[in-house]
Amino acid sequence: MRGTVIHAPGDIRVEDLPEPQIEQPTDAVIRLAATCVCGSDLWPYRGLNPVKEPHPIGHEYVGTVEQVGAEVRTVRPGQFVVGSFFASDNTCQICRAGYQTGCVQRDYIVGAQAELLRVPLADGTLVATPGRPDPERVPSLLAASDVLGTGWFAAVAAQVRPGASVAVVGDGAVGLLGVLAARELGAERIIAMSRHADRQRLAREFGATDIVTERGEEGVARVKELTGGLGAHSVIEAVGTQQSMLQAVRATRRGGHVGFVGVSHDVSLDGSELFASLVHLHGGPAPVRSYLPDLVERILRGAIEPGKVFDLTLPLERAAEAYDAMDSRRAIKVLLQP
Amino acid sequence: MRGTVIHAPGDIRVEDLPEPQIEQPTDAVIRLAATCVCGSDLWPYRGLNPVKEPHPIGHEYVGTVEQVGAEVRTVRPGQFVVGSFFASDNTCQICRAGYQTGCVQRDYIVGAQAELLRVPLADGTLVATPGRPDPERVPSLLAASDVLGTGWFAAVAAQVRPGASVAVVGDGAVGLLGVLAARELGAERIIAMSRHADRQRLAREFGATDIVTERGEEGVARVKELTGGLGAHSVIEAVGTQQSMLQAVRATRRGGHVGFVGVSHDVSLDGSELFASLVHLHGGPAPVRSYLPDLVERILRGAIEPGKVFDLTLPLERAAEAYDAMDSRRAIKVLLQP
């Protein structure tokens, strides 16, 4: 089968790879209907995470089950499925508390930018749709697999409540879908922090009521101006840098909530500042599986259209172009068709 | 009047000071029935916080209202009152959300180790008891003014729930009262981390079900052993050092909650570790005022006896000895009688 391999920073190739097989009785193999490039894939692409040796890449996926192991009970060949970017058993205490990315059996999904994908712990990782979805829903279902689920978790972690003021740091796909999640969760004021016209437009479409173009301390000052001098009730952090984390903490009112989902890179938080800020801080790898049934349902009834974050679609063979387009910010997010 | 002044690290003196006056129409002046030394007073005493110039010290207090300003409505001369260590208006949006230590008008209480104390924003800071309390309740009411309220906030911030497992890092008065708060909030298993026999005894009396004497990684491993390998649902951090914060984060299960109330000193949290841990982190200066009505009621009906943390009582004149006894760990907490 054809699949994407990262060889080194900047070196993405689509190659012939062995077809994935059922390795454990809890595995499934799925044929991908669509996959995509994640903001977090850009870290190794940019050389900010090391690439020790060439390896298959990609962790966002929707598709049709081809094969299941002997112990798989909840999905069967022929079903259309959406899955999380982390495999989880969905039965341990941590999963039952809603933290499938902390599952005691958790496993990474690797190599989803391909024709076929092995998904471990299929029962606890995949969610089947009722029937085969309309092709126009596929991009939105694909978004649910990671970026929507992550933006949603960020909004939940930031305790977005009806009537709340929300600020969103980061205008990538996750930040934009954090805006959408905040709107769905009833936020009254949603402040998107963005400097890019295309992303501002999508943020507005997803529910942003205000756009702040300033960053750092100026950005914080603008958010405070817009929230009666106090800062936002809830702030979503969707970048993962020192600057974005500080911007998020400082734009939050005392007693408010920061939900952070940008994968942290060289972030160090000062204890005294955190202490004085009185904010709640919660985040990490989003337990997408926890939200998938609800998100799939919202998508299929047309309540939300997160697939709008895909502003470029390419055949899988052109994965290298997809990375380049996202790296250079020519595209927000690229869908790949196997 | 007589009052305590810190002149330099290790140099505590009780001196003649001018009597505090009503300065703002929202002030009250109270005659102290009891005051005490706080763990946080030891930071300047030990030279770990600078003492730029001599200043009155102390922020924990109960007593009788002597005088009120023209705008004070909820307390009147002759009433016995308990107050928070931060003054707050208790009417702003931040206060109404339960974060009086983040009040837009907040002010420090300074100079409570004295005969008389000026309390700003009296209506929003003080709580009057119904009638004059039995003298044997006074130490417990004094504890409510800071250490009980702080331990309580830590337990609330750590989301202690009925049936939860709770670990408490720190065996000072706040940690011990965190144990008591966890018990009151319904925790099933309460693991106190302590190496001192007297504090272990009090922890057991307050509700600890297990004592862990190990620290650092060994302490974390012991907490995990006691919690099915997962870590505690809720961890209270009541020290404020790098080691204690890491111990708290690492002893918490994924998706669990850390409530931190130890005043942070040179603490730096690594973003990647926090991200991967999936814990909730919340803390800061405890909004004691938020809990005072409930805590006073629990004390007066005899449900809790937090005053047991005072294992030494001295006349105010001997404040220097009180500091020395706490600094050398001969006493957990010293009550001073003006």
The CATH architecture category of the largest domain in chain A equals: Alpha-Beta Complex
**From the structure provided, what is the oligomeric state, counting identical versus distinct chains?**
homodimer
The Cα radius of gyration of chain A reads: 19 Å
Largest interface: A-B, 41 and 41 residues
The rounded distance between the terminal residues' Cα atoms of chain A is: 10 Å
Name the CATH superfamily assignment of the largest domain in chain A: Medium-chain alcohol dehydrogenases, catalytic domain
* Structural domain tally of chain A: 2
Q: What is the strand tally of chain A?
A: 19
Instruction: Give the CATH level 1 class of the largest domain in chain A.
Output: Alpha Beta
DSSP strand content of chain A: 25-35%
- Mean pLDDT over the residues of chain A: 97
Q: What is the CATH T-level topology of the largest domain in chain A?
A: Quinone Oxidoreductase, Chain A, domain 1
H/I helix tally of chain A: 12
Task: Write up this protein.
The structure is a homodimer of 338-residue chains. Chain A is of the alpha/beta class. The first copy, chain A, folds into two domains: 2-146 and 287-337, Quinone Oxidoreductase, Chain A, domain 1 (Alpha-Beta Complex); 150-283, Rossmann fold. Chain A has twelve helices and 19 strands. Chain A has helices at 42-45, 93-96, 122-125, 138-144, 147-157, 173-184, 197-206, 216-226, 242-250, 271-277, 288-300, 319-327, and strands at residues 2-8, 11-16, 28-36, 55-56, 61-68, 80-83, 86-87, 107-108, 116-119, 126-128, 165-169, 189-193, 210-212, 232-237, 252-260, 268-270, 280-283, 310-315, 333-337. In chain A, the strands form four sheets. In chain A, strands 3, 5, 6, 9, 10, 18 and 19 form a seven-stranded mixed β-sheet that branches. The longest helix of chain A has 13 residues, at 288-300. The first copy, chain A, is globular. The A-B interface holds A 93-94, 97-99, 101-102, 104, 228-230, 240, 242, 245, 253-255, 260, 263-272, 274-285, 287 and B 93-94, 97-99, 101-102, 104, 228-230, 240, 242, 245, 253-255, 260, 263-272, 274-285, 287. Strand 16 (268-270) of chain A pairs antiparallel with strand 16 of chain B.
